[in-house]
Amino acid sequence: MRDLRALTKLFVEGGVSRREFMKSAAAFGAATATLGAGGFSARAATGPLVGFSFPSFDAFRWPHDRHYFQARADELGLQYIIQGANEDVATQDTQIDAMLSQGIKVLVIIPVNVEAGKKIVERVKREANIPIISYNYVIPSPAIDYWAARDNYLVGEIQAKQALKEAKKGNWAIVSGPEGIDVARQKTEGALRVLKPYIDSGEIKIVSHQWHDNWRQESALKQIEDALTQNNNNIQAIVSNEEGLALGALQALTEQGLNGKVWLCGEDVWPEGARAIVRGDMAMSAWTDLIQMGRVAAEAALALTRGETPKTNETLDVDGHKIPGMRIQSRVVNKETLPEFLKLTDWLKPEDIGLKAG
Description:
Layout: H1 4-12, H2 18-26, E1 34-35, E2 49-54, H3 62-76, E3 79-84, H4 89-101, E4 106-109, H5 114-128, E5 132-135, E6 146-150, H6 152-166, E7 170-176, H7 182-201, E8 204-211, H8 217-230, E9 237-240, H9 243-255, E10 263-267, H10 271-279, E11 284-288, H11 290-305, E12 314-318, E13 321-328, E14 330-334, H12 338-344
Parallel strand pairs: 2-3, 2-4, 4-5, 5-6, 6-13, 7-8, 7-9, 9-10, 10-11
Antiparallel strand pairs: 1-3, 11-14, 12-13
Pfam families: Peripla_BP_4 (PF13407)
Main location: periplasm
Family: Belongs to the bacterial solute-binding protein 2 family.
């Protein structure tokens, strides 16, 4: 069996066909891998090899994160192996082992499961002792050397502030992700911080708040169906942690002819969410600057291979260890700001969401 890097070099140089490359790479668990071809050019031949482990590439955003990371990695001359684990912990573990066997100098990881990710990074640190970057989530282990993640509190805050500007007071609902994940807890806490004075005064009443395992859209649908039934359709606003949850809520509203009449927000600007914003069925979505997040991860990887401390704007205490990282900011995307957002990013194409190109 060919060495994966040797196989990739042959592919880049035209020594094997794409079909033969994919067939052979699959034996390494690399069928979903991206390998930095630029790393084999004369200009970048000495760049360190970085492994980036994704949970999958099925979710809408992950291919974009991959692209943003690759673009900066190519500029920096990094070589890279990027793989998706099909949302399977065992596959992620095996793929990372394969990366280690290829000599990666840094591991960037988005864990399939945060607790399983903790075990993986601690094993990698123990066995390979290479720098580890936790991406999107902060894996709760001192084995990580750096992290890049959104400011989840800020997401909740900007959603709640926008709702206060645009929605009527009265009965509100909050749709949260898994209670056991810090991302969901922090977004919810950020929103409640802003809303607390209005809740305390009685201007706003939270008539429904539920946590949803695995960010299940159908679970959010049921929550809002029940909330509408229990309150005779008298709900003024729904704040959702995430776009899929918001779309589940929107389905419940649509069933009652309330789409566009109840203020609703999501997060991450999925195509379906953007179309809902264009139609007026959803008020806004929060978008984290994933272009910056991808760039930060690539820059941090290079810095860590050089024994340098990457740029940081926050340090977290993890089991008594100070771990530097970067909190990535978010913005409001609504009908007014959507055209500008599309120009600044390659996130969506105007014609795909009901807008004219240009």
